[in-house]
Amino acid sequence: MATKLLTRRLTQVHRQLTSFMPAAAQRDNEELRQFFMQLYPVFNNLANTFIEQIERHPEIILTDSARVNLYFSYVTALIDVSQAGTNTRPVNICVDFSEDARFNQYVLTVMNTFGGNVIRVKHALRPETDIYVSDFKAPNLKMTQVIWPNTPTPHDWVELAQDIRNCQSDNTGSTATQNHRTA
Questions:
Q1: How far is CA 33 from CA 21, 75, 91, 92, in A?
Q2: Helix (H, G, I), strand (E, B) or coil at 145
Q3: pLDDT value at residue 172
Q4: Which of 48, 90, 117, 176 is most exposed, with the fewest beta carbons within 10 Å of its own?
């Protein structure tokens, strides 16, 4: 079943490559690539191997933007397939930065890029929220809080990934443990 799902997801990636590949946001890619390398080293290696195999064909010429999109598309497909069929509930994350709506959208987009079935990211705080990511501490919230007063570094993304893994390993689904971390 996983092989069929993986084949279907990779076929979608390749159709996108041959029909329409949107331009990548080059500025953010290295931080996100480092994040994937830390969180999913096997998927990182597989994605790079897939791209190398495509580039061996002289009739296929990949632009830098296409390489970047392929990389993230492959990693996302692998994450989605690896999480399919697991009984773990997604980690719910609220992104709520006070000043800049564009920064909120940037963080939401980055998280949704790799999220797959692992996380659900919203801008609104909900009862099922496991992790609250913001630029300020909310003392009344009884959940893991990640405070980023500045643009997150690759290290900040890795720490968030650890928080996500910690929430995944919590079999009770409880968010009663309070954790405040400031970048």
A1: 18, 10, 21, 22
A2: strand
A3: 40
A4: 176
